[in-house]
Amino acid sequence: MFKNSSSTKQFTYITVIIISIFSGLYFYNSFYKSSPYTEGLFWQVSKDGVVLGHIYGTIHMNDEKVTRLNKKVMDVFDNSFGYSIEAFPSSHLWNPYHGFENIKKRMMFEDKTLADVAGEKTANEVFEILTKNGVNKKYATHIKPWAAMFSIAAKSKHSGPIVDHKLLDLASIQNKEIYQIESPEELLAAFYAMPMDSQVELLKAKILHYPNIQNALDKMIAAYLEEDLEGLMDASTSFVDKNIIFPNKHLDVYLKHSVYIRNIVMAHYMQMPFLYGLDRHKGQGGTFVSVGALHLLGDKGVLNILEKQYGFDIKRVHYKEPIIENTIN
To answer: CA-to-CA distance for 74 and 125, rounded, in angstroms?
Structure first.
């Protein structure tokens, strides 16, 4: 059973970084304005008339406004025979060969420092932010730009795990079959291939945006609660220049390496619980998948890939009670 660890400040902070990386990495692109799957968090997946499971879009924050799940969603989860999480927590319990110490090492340079690739000014700014948040000096000095980008985050005012990990805990208690749909190696490979100049420029943009980060988080939560995937994308990329006349080439690179490539991997691995691992339970609840909400968005999102490339039928599940206006004078 997963337990939220708080043994040291550094462990907690690195865990937050990993959660942020696996969270969907929300980026805006004006192309989405005419794309499919622009709103909705809860989806039914079927094939040949047989319901195989459900996909629920999450937001990787532990704010109580987003960690309380609707009863209809929980009923579907409780009746599912399996649970698929975007990625297992980085603790030794779930990833004995890929614990947070090993992952942390892969987020650091071995033979150079951040200053060597990003300059002294940027490196000093990162060092000041990270060390104030409890990160040790060696890590703050040798961190790679893409990792530093996600390390620059506001400290949570809340306690407890994110929704994905709460459901993992419950799935373990309920003896569900459990899968992950992206491995640490696949995640890291996507970032390793990102050009260094894009890593550095996006890091600099994140530093400039840092004083406004709490406002951006509030807007993300508001959009999420409205099931507005486009609004969530826009709020979460507020630190990036979205000039339509002069498109930001670094944003395009970032989308490719942090979202699109990962969507292909996730959609591929979702087939296992939907079609094979839970084959004997077809029609009896299938599997429940939790994934960062913006992995659902657009024609390159997992929902469209599952539909167009793998032939699944995707149907939105409306789980909120409609608001009835009082028209009585």
So the answer is: 43
